Structure formats: structure tokens, C-alpha cells
């Protein structure tokens, strides 16, 4: 059976639209023009564009700028969408030309057609409610879209930051659990000096906590918005009442304490705030990936590698090698880190490529930045739940590596000098004789002093071997 259609026209021409669809002609043109990623607009982003439309209609009604009947219908339409309805009608691709005009118009048209029906009209009859004149009243794509992007970053951060707190807590707990486990520290993958396994996990926790604070700090820029700037910062078509109150109303509806940018031209032209957030996410990704590398190395083997820790077994590691278990959770975190680092390059280049009074590349900035948040949130969650909390220490293997290493010879430098210590290390490696035995045999130190200097536990604390 053939679908019923309605005809809509714009300055380009006429198109047939599915009668059941709440989107309109500009949305359909965008869908046909931008079959790019196959991914639609982020649902949280759509919600925030709708929230802006509701705030605008509320202010416009309150100050007599928009007919109350129209305003109420628009507000009710926004509420329907905010309650989860009509998701299928937001059909434009996440990456699009036009600085987000397609996204803005997709929302405008859906809201308009819902409102039209609420007032007894038929979809597409924009004499009842106009997507441009009524839903988009006092606004421009150029202030709506970046503001929605900032609100979306703030929303996605509320999912990521608690996961980072949980990961920090889990790592801190492990640092205490492993505080009595001596292991060899390594630099450049070579034996260095002894440390405690708990110290390694404490360093992980510190790096995650620092990354979390860096992200939180970068979010402050997201609370400065350019609502009221309209096209380029001159506030053309934005009347005084709307200009004065829109940011305040949006703050109330969003629950975020927003402020209007002091310089609306800057607020419209420049997107470096998103670069700062992306950079903070990249720094987190780097730390998570380095931690994952360390976990894979420390758990390697388990018989023929370092084998100092045992990661939880989560799935079979091979289709051909029985009993093989791979470090799949750290591996996926590594891959998320690669993804986020690549996204940061895209965000950086898109921000740099802005020209004159507008950056046309916000769609790809948001596409990549939102995906970075989602991927990191999932990665941190699985790292914590499926890896960190279940890690156990292979105490015997850690002790074995400490006992076999010549790294403790470093502690002798202040007593016998670097060159003599190096000679002893070489002899120990060549003959297998213990460091302590060589020092005593050559009469370089008395046994009581030597025992204290070479006590591995004391070697793991600042100034631990000072006499």
C-alpha cells in the first residue's frame, strides 16, 4: 500500500513528505543531502535544542512577543519530546553542512507540526504555527546550536565524572590491599629499584583523580553561552525582553547556572571551550591507556611473563589455544583511548578552521566530542567493574623478582660509589652471586649497615635508607 504524502515547498522547490512524519521539507532536504555517518543526532543534544525552544517560547509568551495560544502549543509540543516521544522524527545525520542549521530546523519543524495538530490543524500548515517565525522566534542556529552543544557536554559529563570517582575509589582500595606487597620497579622495561605494588595502584588512582579535576575545570567554560547573539553577535531580531531574560530562563529549565557571554561576537565565532574539554578528555584517555598498558604488562605470562598480578578471567582468550585468557578489559580501554585521541585531533582542526563570524564545523565537533564522552564513560565503567575490583596480587612472583634483581644495588651508591656499585651489579648478573654476599666478601660494608641499606621495604619510602 502506498504511503500517504503531503506536499511542502520552500525557496528551493517542492517535496513530497510522508503524511505521518512530523518533520518538514527542510529536514527532508538535509537527510537527502547528508547521508554521511549513518548516525542520527545525539538524543541528549536533541533534548537540549528542544529545551532551548521551550525556554524561548516561555520568555516570548511572558513578555507578549508571541501569542499565548501559539506559545502554549509550542511549550506543550516541547514537553512531548522531552518526555521521549517523536524520537523517530529527528532524522538528520549528526555530521552536516550549514553549521547545524539542519539540526535546528529538524527540531523547529517537529515542534511546529506537533503544535499545529494540538491546535486542530494539519501537519505542514505553517500558517498555524511557523517553524521559523514562531518556534525559532528571537533565535538563530548560530546561538541555539552552540548552546545546546554546551548543555550536552555538561549532561554527558554528569555520567562520566561519577564513573571516574568510582574508579579512583577502587584503585585506592587496591593500593591499600597491596601495600605490603614488594615488587620490582622498572624503568624503560628494565629492572630499577624495589617498590610496593600498592604504590603502583596509588599512582593510578592519583592520575585518574587529577584527570577528573582537569575535566571538571574545563566544564566551567560550558556554562558561558551566546543565547541572544542570534546570527553573529549583534542580537539582530532579538528584542530587549527576550535578550535580557532568555539565559535566565534556560538556566531554570536546564538546572545549569548559565551566564551570557560578555562578548557575543567571541561567543559566536570561537569554539575553543570545546577544544579545552576535548583536551581534558584526551589527557584522561592517555592516563587510562598508560594504566592499561601497565596492567597488561604486570599480568603478562602468566608463567613466562612478569605475572605480578592476576586479572579477572572474563572470557576465553583464543579459538585455538585452550586455557588462554587475555587481558580484554585493558585492551578495550586502550582502544577507546586511541579513539578519543583521534577525536581530539578532529575537534582541534574543526575549531581552527572556523572563519570570520562563525565556525561552520560545530556538527563534527559535537559528533566526536559526544562520542568521546560516551566511550570513556563505558570504558571507565568496565575497567572498574570487570577488572580493577577483581585484581589479585601474585605475592610469590613479586617476591621472586625482587630477590633475583640487582636493582637494589642502587642503594649502595652513597656508601661505595656509583662505579663500585656498577661493578658489583655486573658481577652478580654474571655469576648469580647475591649483592649482599659480594659486598660482605669484599669487606665494603659491615653486615648490620648493609642489612638496613638493602632492606627492600625501607627502599620503598623516601629517605628510608638514610643513616
Any overview of this molecule?
This protein has 467 residues and is mostly helical. It folds into three domains: 5-137, Fumarase C, Chain B, domain 1 (Orthogonal Bundle), CATH 1.10.275.10; 143-224 and 269-396, Fumarase C, Chain A, domain 2; 406-459, Fumarase/aspartase (C-terminal domain) (Ribonucleotide Reductase Protein R1, domain 1, Orthogonal Bundle), CATH 1.10.40. Helix content is 58%, strand content 7%. The chain is built from 18 helices and eight strands. The strands form four sheets. Strands 1-2 form a two-stranded antiparallel sheet. Strands 3-4 form a two-stranded antiparallel sheet. Helix 8 links the parallel strand 5 and strand 6. Helix 2 runs antiparallel to helix 3 (68-82), helix 2 (43-62) packs across helix 4 and helix 3 (68-82) crosses helix 4 (101-118). The longest helix is centred in the middle third of the chain and has 37 residues, at 141-177. The radius of gyration is 31 Å and the shape is elongated. The N and C termini lie far apart (93 Å). The model has no long low-confidence stretch (mean pLDDT 94).
